[in-house]
Write a structure and sequence with these properties.
Helix content is 51%, strand content 7%. It has 3 helices and 2 strands; from the N terminus they run αββαα.
Length: 86
Amino acid sequence: MKLYVFLIIVSILFLLFVEKYIGNVSIRPNSNNINQFNLMGAISYMLEPLHNTFLWNMSLLPYNYVFIIVLSVIVHTNLIHKNKFE
């Protein structure tokens, strides 16, 4: 599997995970109180660990996008890319 496809899948799964356990990150009510996908809210949350050290707390690492991406690249490089799971 190509790395960019793997990272897109990881990113979508991450957003679903964060939306389920934190809530109102990427799906928010608009001015008419109708839930809609907010891309800027999702991107803002994903980049927040670069600005705020709070998400680098050990108990919050599963909600840290930068940590998840680094971990995913390591897994892809060491396991998937070497055809161990294909």
